[in-house]
Prior knowledge:
Largest sheet: 5 strands, mixed
Shape: globular
CATH superfamily of the largest domain: Periplasmic binding protein-like II
CATH architecture of the largest domain: 3-Layer(aba) Sandwich
Low-confidence stretches: 1-47
Strand content: 5-15%
Distance between the termini: 33 Å
Number of helices: 19
Helix content: 40-55%
Number of domains: 2
Structural class: alpha/beta
Radius of gyration: 23 Å
Oligomer: single chain
CATH class of the largest domain: Alpha Beta
Number of strands: 15
Amino acid sequence: MKKRIAALAMAGLVGLSAGGGGEAQIGGDSEGKEQESSSEKKEDAKGDGEVVLQVVDMSDSTKARREEYNKKFEEENNCKVEYTVLAGDQYQTTINSSIKANTAPDLFALPSGVKLSTAVEEGWYMPMNDYVEDGFFDTFSEGALNEGITTMDGEVYVLPEAANIVNTLVFYNKNVLEDAGVDTNNLPKTWSEFREACKQVTEAGKGKYYGMIEGGKQINRLEIAIRALSCLAGSKSNDIGVISMVDGKNVLNSDAMIQAFDFYSGLVQDGSFHPDSANLAAPEARALFAQNQAAFLIQGAWCISTWEKENPDLEFGVMEMPVPDEGAKGGLPYIGAQPWMGISKTSENPELAAKYLQGLYSEEYQSGVVEDGGFVSAIEGVNEKYMKDGVMKDYYTLALEQGKLCPDPIVGNADTAAVYANIKEVSPNLGQIVQGVLTGKTDYKDSLNTLAENTQKEWDNGIAKAKEAGANVSAADFEFKNWNPLEDYTAENYESK
Length: 497
């Protein structure tokens, strides 16, 4: 029986979006592999009579578990699973070529930057509603399946790999703080307290360690962090792209955004940032943090399992982002679970592909990847039951407390995806402006005004182009006047908007 999925808004905890191409907790290091064409593989399979299920992915964060699962699936279903992980650019090229040649793998992930509406319109995926067991979609947490994100017209085309949680909490190095005389049982909660703690650490370190470190070379991470800080000050920003429109006003040069930049600038003026911060990639910053060269680092849950595997002697914990001295005027923004894997429209084995997916989302498989750490399941109840790591549990709890679901225009109106497709990123962007602050430039107010002005032009242009192409969209689709940034933006909010 065909199961119809209602258009749900994100109302519960649903996954680590990195936003703007940032690191995602579900996206570990990827490896590039040479891959023979899908057509060649299918011909080989026909030659020996063996059913082959081709699975191509761009994330290998659960690679060991997946390979174990593949072996079991092969034995139970008398088939061969050809599982390939490709790096970002190689993945995009391979998938695009295979789709054009009608030789797409049976299961493949939606490439980064491609909206579901585009993929469905171009016939990349088939609806999986008719191929999964009744009740399967009900096992997902509320908000994991959303119209315009995973679902079009009630038909589910792709599933989220994991749930999203905020990726801008603060990790602290216990050894550094204790050596500097900072009480780890009384960690800083406000911007002023945090600034003072960083000064104390930096002065005590005398060049050995510093209060703060950033992966400033990775500008997307800087942008995510500054958006989060501005939201705590009440900017009503979001973490999903270049458009930040609320109540008809661009928030990129708002008072709250300027306050966030003032906070960052103050840390720089104090000399509290590690001197290499502007030139470090995020993994390099994590490594130096683990080497006791900094007390604080803003990143996401993916750090936890990495440190525990590579730096077992590191004593660290996680805390909430500090808030403005007058108190938080908003939470840390995050959006719902994002699209991942779907069944190719040209698959010759859709039933087998659907069975493979159902196994990946079974409690048996999901419990394992959650127990491994650094992964938050999109399946109801799994995280609470199987999350064992102490720091990961702390992260999950804090993310629930400080993180707030922000509105996603695509959930409100799937046609807004056409607007995003027509928008070019303005340079310098938020991350680049933050990078300038790290290098000692202080003219961020003028830069933010210019960014806001040019982004507004892009936004207006994107809407106009989308409408010309037939999209039913307007500026009002990007305005959420009923958004209380101290609360989750729920399905009811979309309905009353």
